[in-house]
Amino acid sequence: MTAAPSPAAAQPSTLNTKSAQRKKALIVLASVVVLGGVAWGIYDYVVASHYEATDNAYVQGHVIQITPQIGGTVMAILADDTDFVKAGQPLVQLDPADARVALDQAEAGLAQAVRQVRTLYANNGALAAQVRLRDAEVLRAQGDVARATDDLNRRQSLGGNGAVSKEELNHAQSQLTTARSALAAAEAGVNAAREQLISNQALTDGTNLELHPSVQLAAAKVREAHLATQRTALLSPVDGYVARRSVQLGQRVAAGTPLMAVIPLSNVWVDANFKEVQLRHIRIGQPATLVADLYGKKVDYKGVVTGIGIGTGAAFSLLPAQNATGNWIKVVQRVPVRIALDAQQLAGKPLRVGLSMNVDIDVTDQSGKVLADVPVAAPLASALSDHTAEAANADVRRVIAANAGPVGQAHPSAH
């Protein structure tokens, strides 16, 4: 019969077993840590080092202010917040009564100017005829002087023989003096008539009725008044959505007062604010993947870096930091990076201005530029056609034609 082991003999064996298990666990833990570190190093070298990411990114867009170009009273509001509007669609209607009265006054002023200029051209002919009449009077006066001179000479030659009385001789002398005075008056009349003609021609030379400065000045006032009548209707310059409507019916608004905004959601972008250290490898043209909190990770937007901000957000803030005064603590700055989005994706999954985004930029290809070096055409322009100037010119031509008189009276100045 075998004797049972004593408790003192079993204790060292138990301690050895626990020590071995603990040693094995530490080896496994150390191996996991080492493998994790190696895996992270490989991931950082192969994947993470090729991407720069931030969640400090927001959707931006053009907020087009709708402001009146003239003052007036709001008579109708034709669009409200969240409404979709097309380019050229009326948004706000102002009272057109004052503008129409001003247009009537301007048209009357143009008609009066046309008739006054017609009078100037007509006066050229009348004054030219007056000059010719004065010239004829001078010729007649010269003839009278010549006859009076001959009469006086004959009487003076006969006066020595007593054939002509002294009274008759004095009478001939008086007639010559009178003829010379009449000649001087006629010559003065010719000079005055010519000066009047020159003065009137100075107002008409080198132009015709329609291009006369007085007519052009009045026509400009008609165009101005015509534009004011057209501007009583505020139209949407682009396709977009109405936001920030503040105008109310019956409100008296001044020129330049913001009434509402139109935002074209088809032309939005993302401003991603990266830290300074993240900008080392970011270049224009690099691809980006974006995720919006609105749709979650199931929707990935594709984008392209189109520009890197010229300054940090703090540099352009309302109250920029004054780091040269007082105690100073370094704060890592951020610079906005503009990312253009795919238009087709925006059409299927539209975004709103101000939404937050998560951005990952693939910085593998660093051949692009840090700063743009060529001008970029403005991506946004009004889709409205400018027919207002054509309509104003047609109105001017109508008024001129109605007051220019029969054909041939609006001729260039006479010479």
Question: Your description of this structure?
Answer:
This protein has a six-stranded antiparallel barrel with strand order 1-10-13-12-11-14. Among the domains are: 64-96 and 229-262, RNA polymerase II/Efflux pump adaptor protein, barrel-sandwich hybrid domain (OB fold (Dihydrolipoamide Acetyltransferase, E2P), Beta Barrel), CATH 2.40.50; 98-216; 265-321 and 330-362, Elongation Factor Tu (Ef-tu), domain 3, CATH 2.40.30.170. The protein has helices at residues 7-46, 97-159, 166-202, 213-230, 343-348, 388-403, and strands spanning 51-61, 64-66, 72-77, 84-85, 90-94, 233-235, 240-243, 252-253, 260-263, 268-275, 287-292, 300-308, 334-341, 356-362. The protein contains six helices and 14 strands. The N and C termini lie far apart (159 Å). Helix 2 packs antiparallel against helix 3, helix 2 (97-159) packs parallel to helix 6 and helix 4 crosses helix 6. The protein is 43% helix and 19% strand. It has 415 residues and is α+β, with helices and mostly antiparallel strands.
Q: Could you say which structural class the secondary elements and strand pairing correspond to?
A: alpha+beta
Shape: rod-shaped
Rg of Cα set = 48 Å
What is the ordering of alpha helices and beta strands? HEEEEEHHHEEEEEEEEHEH
Mean pLDDT: 83
Number of DSSP helical runs: 6
Instruction: Give the strand line-up of the largest sheet.
Output: 1-10-13-12-11-14
Secondary structure: number of strands: 14
